[in-house]
Amino acid sequence: LKKESSINSNCGVFGIYNNPEAAILTYYGLHSLQHRGQEAAGIVTSEFLESENRHRFNIHKDHGLVSNVFRDEKILTDALRGTAAIGHTRYSTTGASDKRTNIQPFKVIFKGGNLALSHNGNLTNTRELRNHLQDEGTLFQTSTDSELLLHLIARSKKESIEEKILEAVSFIKGAYSICILTDDKLFAIRDPYGVRPFCMGKLGESFVFASETCALDIINADYVRDVMPGEMITIDKDVIKSGEPKSVYFEKVERYRHCIFEFIYFSRPDSIVFEEKVDKVRRRIGKNLALESPPPKKEDDRKRVVVINVPDSSNTATLGYFSEAAKHNSDIKNEIGLIRSHYVGRTFIQPGQDKREMKVRTKFNIVKGVLSDRKVVMIDDSIVRGTTSKLLVDLLKKASPKEIHLKITSPPIISPCYYGMDFPSKQELIAARKDKNLEEIKEWLGVDSIAYLSEEKLLESATNTRPETGFCTACFSGNYPIQIEGIDEIPKNGFDD
Ligand code: SF4
């Protein structure tokens, strides 16, 4: 439910070079990145036409899930021919989501040939750049920030495509993991703070790039390493011969600012992001929450306390919570108290019915027998507006539990994200509205207690020991590590570097 209504990751990107099945492999890659964006998907391939001695770019993109957009196999086998491809799955954070022109990858022809781009993240200085380019006569086809980069590359007076891209990148600020495909090269570029994840893999002689390693697993590619913050990797025919990707660092910062929310919620638990296994970090998050906020004791002669997860987003953290809590309290048991339906389509409502409530009821149901007359500890990953949590609590109450204790595996969200995640405005965030007053949030949700994980313990859960490793926690702290233009409401606490 959250993926549709509370927080949305904006994108997943994928790229592959030197494979005769580039489009099909990209399709599978996008399929495993579906959780990062469900509104639209697209693939661009580079095909060499021997008879004409030139490259042609083929494109297919549309609204919908990856399996719907590419439901006709012939799109992949006949229309999207070529040995290199980039793909994109999208949830919009900038640009109207219903416009087809806003769906990525973007494809243009410029004086150097064909160029296509897929972007995950959000640029934070687009207004200034857009105004500047428009003053100079640039016509924009989309309302997205990603198109800016294409124009900057196309306008560059530099000689080589590598130099053009590097010059364009020097103008942009914000969060970006980008795949760029030209006639004969594939580029992978990541912002200097490394906000969004980005990895490189190999499948035989082919090089692969993806937002998360689960997209490498699905095509049997091996994870090689991350595209590092501030790095541009180039793959071309020479690289295929040598086996060594070309790497350039265009900017180095003292401290990376990986999005900590990738560990809490966005990334799949079977992925490695920021060089750490998401599953392990998420379990540690649960464990730390158990240490900070253990479950209640059962009363004498009463049934054991049950710990339940909100499927699927808190499954892994709940395992961590329970295994730690059980070491100190033998009166608890782990149960499946909520069942999630994965087949939620449109919701039809009767007059007077609440749409959100209907969505919760079509998505979740309770297992009354395991909840009834017990103290229930429900583990959830985050509370955004609070409306979904409140509806879930109301649903649990139908089983007549004795008490409901809500434990959240993140700190209270008090500020929106400007780096590629779709959070509602500050005014809509329950923890901001209630000024982080736990008593008031508890009352509003109708639970017997509420606890959030502290920022300190959250950060402690990620244990990458690189000296440069650091995290963005702006949605919890209001400290935005990368400057954002034209936002009057923030930064509340100033920029922290
Ligand atoms: Fe991630 Fe929050 Fe920072 Fe956005 S503001 S990048 S969601 S930690």
Question: Could you describe the 3D structure shown?
Answer:
The chain is an alpha+beta fold. 30% of the residues lie in helices and 26% in strands. The strands form 7 sheets. It has a 7-stranded antiparallel sheet with strand order 4-3-5-2-11-10-12. Strands 6-7-8-9-13-14 form a 6-stranded antiparallel sheet. Strands 19-18-22-23-25 form a 5-stranded parallel sheet, sandwiched between helices. α6 packs across α7, α11 runs antiparallel to α18 (455-461) and α13 (355-363) crosses α15 (387-397). The longest helix has 15 residues, at 278-292. It starts with a helix and ends in a 20-residue tail after the last helix. Residues 1-5 and 488-497 have low confidence and may be disordered. The site of iron/sulfur cluster has 11 residues, from α19.
Concise account of the structure shown:
This protein is 30% helix and 26% strand. The chain is built from 19 helices and 26 strands. Strands 4-3-5-2-11-10-12 form a seven-stranded antiparallel sheet. The chain has a six-stranded antiparallel sheet with strand order 6-7-8-9-13-14. Strands 19-18-22-23-25 form a five-stranded parallel sheet, with helices on both faces.
